[in-house]
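Q: What structure does this chain adopt?
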Amino acid sequence: MAKTDTNPNHVSATAKYVRVAPRKARLVVDQIRQKSIPEALDILRFSPKAVAVDVEKVLRSAVANAYENNGIREDDLVIHETYVDEGPTLKRIRPRAKGSASRINKRTSHITVTVAPRREA
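A:
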């Protein structure tokens, strides 16, 4: 389900088909919600989770979109909304004992970050 925001000052960026389970990505995304941009970047930079690199890329993209499209500087922004949606699942087979097989689900995620000016968020 896509979430739409009608406010023209809210700028978002999305990374689709990221090869990480949504449950793992939500652990990182929940830590940066409602934070300022420098604070969120510090949290992501020192996070031990591998998905933090992908979330940081999406955050930097949203900040760049806000600057290029609306002329809003990074210092004036705050993270308005972040969420992780489930993408398509890659289904793989692992051979098991006695000629049977087990299914392995390789899950993907769609990571969305929305930033807004500090006074509106």
